[in-house]
Amino acid sequence: MLKVILAEDDPAMRLILKRVLEGIKGIDLIGEAENGRQLVQMVEELNPDIVFLDIDMPEVNGIEASREIFDINPNIFIIFATGFNCYAHEAFEVYAFDYLIKPFNLERIRRTVERIKELKMEREQVGFLQQERPLRREENFKLKVLSNDKSTFINVPDIILITRNERKTMIYAVGDVVVQSYDPLQKMEERLEKHRFFRCHKGFIINPDMVLELSPWGNKTYLVKLANTKETALMTLEHAKEFQQLYCL
Predict the structure, then answer these.
(1) Distant-in-sequence contacts of 194-197, Cβ < 8 A, 24+ apart
(2) Residue 132: burial class (beta carbons within 10 Å; 0-12, 13-18, 19+)
(3) How far is CA 243 from CA 175, 183, 199, 236, in A?
(4) Strands 221-226, 232-236: parallel, antiparallel or unpaired by DSSP?
(5) Are 164 and 74 in contact (CB under 8 A)?
């Protein structure tokens, strides 16, 4: 079941979307929010797979709320459902999966949800297709990570990917190693700048040596399958072009 939160301050529009979603198999509507602040709190508490949200909402608008959601979990599918077509550029800058304009095309909503189902299934199957890849780098450097009054040391070549989860930075390394850090991704990127890591997306830093496959994932985005882990990353179209220029023959 896909867990969905719906954020819309207009009760009539919220009811329309609710009825459409309730008619789609495999959907569990777990929450409804009337403003952006309430939405962000629900996302932190309920960890949805999909968020439908309006842009023009009180307290925190949809664009700002989506940025906060992205920091909580960059894997959440964000779908803007709004009466404004002038914010499409800003919406896709925060990696929206789709952008729906009122009055809604109900069939379009169904198709979007069905596509997300397919992508979720594909991502879940990655774990069964996990491949190991030998490390190629001859580096002796370790990344020092401070967390909960202790220091953890990770071999830099072993790092597979770094991402965000619940406003914390998560480092995944070979051997099912997962280390939590309070440093933002930008700081991690700066620390690893000289060690051949690639910022493929606002929410992900990857080790290019671990990349196995790119496959389409939403609007101008790719799903990145990686060696030595069941985790996946996302890569924007622009970064995919850059990645191939830098690392591919």
Answers:
(1) 195/139, 195/141, 195/156, 196/137, 197/159, 197/162
(2) exposed
(3) 25, 25, 10, 10
(4) antiparallel
(5) yes
What is the Cβ-side half-sphere exposure of residue 182, based on CA atoms within 13 angstroms? 6
**Domain definitions of the chain by residue range:** 2-127, 134-247
Cα dihedral 67, 68, 74, 75 sign: negative
Q: Could you report the per-residue pLDDT of 160-179, keeping only the tens digit for each?
A: 999 998 889 999 999 999 99
Q: 8: which 2 tokens?
A: 């819309």
HSE-up of residue 55 (Cα within 13 Å, Cβ side): 21
Superfamily holding 134-247: LytTr DNA-binding domain (2.40.50.1020)
Structure tokens at 167: 């406003």
- E strand or H helix at 185: helix 185-191
Classify domain 2-127 by CATH number: 3.40.50.2300
**Strand-pair category, 77-82 with 98-101:** parallel
For residue range 166-216, list pLDDT tens digits in order: 889 999 999 999 999 989 999 999 999 999 999 999 899 999 999 999 998
